[in-house]
């Protein structure tokens, strides 16, 4: 089929059904995360462990930076040739007995998958962990049609049984500790009792027993995809538990959901990403299970294979240069694990399937920013711009540069009234020497707000947001310009000229 990836004038955005836009802004959600002491402790312990493991396995590789550059270059090539690569992928999958479906948004993807499941007559499906299916709210769409989707990844199972939402790209239940998981299992699993402890081995065994019969009975499985290979038509999954292998081989029907940007040109390109992804995500040299499939084979694996290619705002992101950079993401979560904002606020604060630094740039690119009150309009500000995310990204996404550009676009399109007035006044003041001189002479009046400790503890009105969380020094009695015009300063300047010293050096000598 012929592929059209939107037009430059109005590319399609993600549908409202997507799990890409929360109900509240990041600042409000972040307060909940900051006040959740248990969650903060869990996140700090988990992300620190993953960071250290990642660094250890990366230090073993002499050409890590060359690998990053190779991954980045490959993904840029994909963005430049996406239509033809997708057509090539479809042709290869079809030639091997598979079926390819195209979905413009979450609604269309959900409809396609629901009809495929209904055609089998089944009311239950098993699922492999998938960001794409979470993004399009697939479980909810299937539930509306009377179909139950059983998550089989351990962390996703914890989230599902706890009636919770994922908070991390790689470890969805990272915000939960062992004691919390034990309570969830006790409440939802009939085959265990109070004798179970919070030891990981016991919890894992409880999950294994809970899922084993469902694996054996399942007729339909739904997966995501880490990559699709255009040259061969392969879809690939890398995982750590083996639940994916069970889902991919036992059911009669397999439905794989893949974002259109997940394509790789050739099978050889896969070599690069099999080195980048495990090290960046779990700190492993190689993931325990690597699965590839491309169609159907008589007597081996599923009898029916479907791939659903999902746009859901990706062509809109491709219309922008930095948006194309964001689409290079391979969902490793390395940027989350080093982000001080994510570690303290937690993944739920972002209100999107994609939390952390990558979510702060990818989500607004996929959905657009509707108005000044759109929760996604706050995401580019969910960063200190420290740059750690840039340093660890395995495909060299310029996350900080994306954040700054998105802030610029947000303010340009939806100029905030108060900030716009303040910035306008500052522009006027800085543009006039007379006004600036007058303003600097009035700064000393801020001393009346200071306390005995030399700090301003509370600024009036909306300015209090600054002083409530920061130490603000009391201004000096005189501005530098006022002091420089004084006889003391002029005498010091004359002495400095006479001795041939800079003014600061002369001041240092006098202080000694």
From TrEMBL:
Keywords: 4Fe-4S, Electron transport, Iron, Iron-sulfur, Metal-binding, Repeat, Transport
Biased composition (Basic and acidic residues): 21-31
InterPro entries: 4Fe4S_Fe-S-bd, 4Fe4S_Fe_S_CS, FTHF_cligase-like_sf, Helical_ferredxn, LUD_dom, LutB/LldF, NagB/RpiA_transferase-like
Domain of life: Bacteria
UniProt keyword Transcription regulation present: no
Gene3D superfamilies: Alpha-helical ferredoxin, NagB/RpiA/CoA transferase-like
Domain named LUD: residues: 86-310
Region feature Disordered, mapped onto this chain: 1-34
Keyword hit for Transferase: no
Bilayer-crossing regions: none
4Fe-4S ferredoxin-type domain boundaries: 325-397
Protein name (Swiss-Prot/TrEMBL): L-lactate dehydrogenase complex protein LldF
Species: Corynebacterium felinum
């Amino acid at each position: 089929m012929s592929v059209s990836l939107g037009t430059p004038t109005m590319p399609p955005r993600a549908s409202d059904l997507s799990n890409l836009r929360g109900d509240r802004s990041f600042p409000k959600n972040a307060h909940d995360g900051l006040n959740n002491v248990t969650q903060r402790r869990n996140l700090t312990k988990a992300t620190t462990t993953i960071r250290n493991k990642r660094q250890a396995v990366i230090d073993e590789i002499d050409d890590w930076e060359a690998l990053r550059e190779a991954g980045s270059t490959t993904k840029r090539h994909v963005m430049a040739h996406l239509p033809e690569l997708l057509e090539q992928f479809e042709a290869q999958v079809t030639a091997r007995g598979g079926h390819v479906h195209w979905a413009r948004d979450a609604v269309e993807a959900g409809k396609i998958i629901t009809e495929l499941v209904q055609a089998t007559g089944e009311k239950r499906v098993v699922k492999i962990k998938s960001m794409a299916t979470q993004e399009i709210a697939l479980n909810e769409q299937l539930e509306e049609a009377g179909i139950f989707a059983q998550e089989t990844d351990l962390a996703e199972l914890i989230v599902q049984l706890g009636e919770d939402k994922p908070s991390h790209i790689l470890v969805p239940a990272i915000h939960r500790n062992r004691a919390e998981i034990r309570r969830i299992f006790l409440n939802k699993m009939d085959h265990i009792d109070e004798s179970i402890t919070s030891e990981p081995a016991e919890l894992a065994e409880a999950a294994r027993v809970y899922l084993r019969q469902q694996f054996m009975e399942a007729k339909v499985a739904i997966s995501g995809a880490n990559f699709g290979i255009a040259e061969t038509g392969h879809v690939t999954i890398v995982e750590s538990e083996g639940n994916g292998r069970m889902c991919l081989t036992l059911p009669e029907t397999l439905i794989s959901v893949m974002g259109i940007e997940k394509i790789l040109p050739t099978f050889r390109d896969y070599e690069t990403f099999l080195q980048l992804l495990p090290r960046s995500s779990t700190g492993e040299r190689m993931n325990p299970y690597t699965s590839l499939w491309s169609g159907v084979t008589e007597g081996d694996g599923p009898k029916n294979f479907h791939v659903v290619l999902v746009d859901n705002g990706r062509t809109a992101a491709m219309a922008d240069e930095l948006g194309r950079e964001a689409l290079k993401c391979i969902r490793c979560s390395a940027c989350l694990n080093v982000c001080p904002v994510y570690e303290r606020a937690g993944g739920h604060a972002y209100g999107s399937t994609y939390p952390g630094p990558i979510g702060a740039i990818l989500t607004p690119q996929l959905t657009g920013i509707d108005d000044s009150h759109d929760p996604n309009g706050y995401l580019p500000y969910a960063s200190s711009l420290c740059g750690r995310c840039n340093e660890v990204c395995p495909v060299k996404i310029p996350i900080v540069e994306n954040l700054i550009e998105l802030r610029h676009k947000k303010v340009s399109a939806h100029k905030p009234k108060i900030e716009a007035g303040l910035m306008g006044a500052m522009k006027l003041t800085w543009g006039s020497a007379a006004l600036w001189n007058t303003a600097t002479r009035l700064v000393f009046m801020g001393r009346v707000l200071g306390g005995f400790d030399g700090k301003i503890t509370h600024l009036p009105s909306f300015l209090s947001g600054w002083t409530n969380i920061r130490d603000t020094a009391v201004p000096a009695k005189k501005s530098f310009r006022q002091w420089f015009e004084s006889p003391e300063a002029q005498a010091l300047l004359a002495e400095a000229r006479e001795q041939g010293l800079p003014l600061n050096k002369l001041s240092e000598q006098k202080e000694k």
